[in-house]
Amino acid sequence: MSKELLHKTATEVAALIESREVSPVELTRSLLDHAHELNDSVNAYISFRDEAALAEAKAAEEEIAQGNYRGPLHGVPMAIKDNIYIGGEVTTMASRIHGDFVSKDDSSVVKKLREAGAVITGKLNMHEYAWGIDNNSPHFGAVHNPWNLDKVPGGSSGGSGAAVAADMSFTTLGTDTAGSIRIPSAACGLVGLKPTHGRVAKYGCFPLAWSLDHIGPMSKSVADAAATLQAIAGHDHRDPTSVDVPVADYSAALGGDPKGLVIGVEEDYFFRDVDSPIEELVRKQIEELVSRGAKLKKVSIPALAYSEWTELATSLSEASAIHHHDLQNRPEDLGADIRFLFELGELFSSVDYLQAQQVRRQIKQEFTAALQDVDVIIAPTLPVMAPDIGSSVANLNGAETDLIDSFIRFTGPSNLTGLPALTVPVGLSDDLPVGLQIIGRAFDEATVLKVGSQIEATNPMQGRRAPVGARALTR
């Protein structure tokens, strides 16, 4: 089997599997070989499921041969982030404390992936307990960005971003509490979707902050993200935050003409302190949509001025409550960076937390009001480019700026509101990808994906791929 198949998107290879031009078993074996070959340099996988994956691929192949094709993930090999449980198998959360943890049950999303016929090839590296944005793990090592191995891939779903960018997984799942799907997707040149809070059930996913956590797809294309979301969306009573609302046909919503689309732009927050090449690429795409018939409308969301404090007060407080016992009894087993954050979280008072929820309500109300007048709000995903591994600062127009604060500044508001947010790649700056973020109305992922597909159709990446995976596949 040609390694070139691994370059294809999940939906492209799905069509070949459905027509039986490609064997799920041979495809899975090829992907596993490629992933093993690259993992020493990229470090995207924490663990592989070679035997289990090949068995799943064989079962898928037999079903398809019998005419029982389940849909666009059937027989497609993919890995998932290592805070999402597979029943009977180790899920580490990239931690020492849970290094041997085995769940009894599959998570909601793994159950749905199995129902869709996906082949799960392994578990992907991440920032410890999903609380970080550079994916430099003291326990499992740093993940390297396939566009430049010296750069961070973003986090906390850095292994997910690196794996898909390097063709070590066709699509994948990440989790997002302050941007952990969208940050590595932007840094690695992927499409990443944080769905509406409650759209995808979180049963069987180790929490970081209950009211902010989301699970969603990280993919090579908008079509792949739509197909992956289709497979995992839906209610599960075992997750108290899951919402029982109808699931749209996301793939059918893609494409079309942006004529009549109303784009909201919030200048005061989302275009303040942005690295110039990033701002230029994002505005260029907005102008392209307008040239094709979209309308532009400025919106104002004043409460965004307090969103960074609100996000941190909420996430740190909830995370510290979750990890309080281990912080008291096993602090030496926590990485120094997250131990500091958990300790910091214990300093917030109940007054601080409740005040943050009042501000959060105001932010949500202002977003809801703005989205009554526009279809989506477009912004940069990240205001700065990915720095070198080990750096705590990023470059903002020639000046150093704090990395964590910068990376979550534009992504965190959608966790506070729970609104769906999609990042799509729109070009390169210094040979690294730049992401554009599309924020939509609650449970209207279809419109967000549709706009993403209209941007993707202009081919802003001009066929450029992450060099690490591309070189390996041509050897």
UniProtKB/TrEMBL annotation:
Q: Catalytic activity annotated for this protein?
A: a monocarboxylic acid amide + H2O = a monocarboxylate + NH4(+)
Q: Where, by residue number, does the polypeptide cross the bilayer? A: none
Q: Which residues form the Amidase domain?
A: 26-449
UniProt cross-references to InterPro entries, sorted A to Z: Amidase (IPR000120), Amidase_CS (IPR020556), Amidase_dom (IPR023631), AS_sf (IPR036928)
PROSITE patterns recorded for this chain? AMIDASES
Q: Name one Pfam family in it.
A: Amidase
Q: What is its EC number?
A: 3.5.1.4
Name a GO molecular-function annotation: amidase activity
Q: Which family does it belong to?
A: Belongs to the amidase family.
State the protein's name: amidase
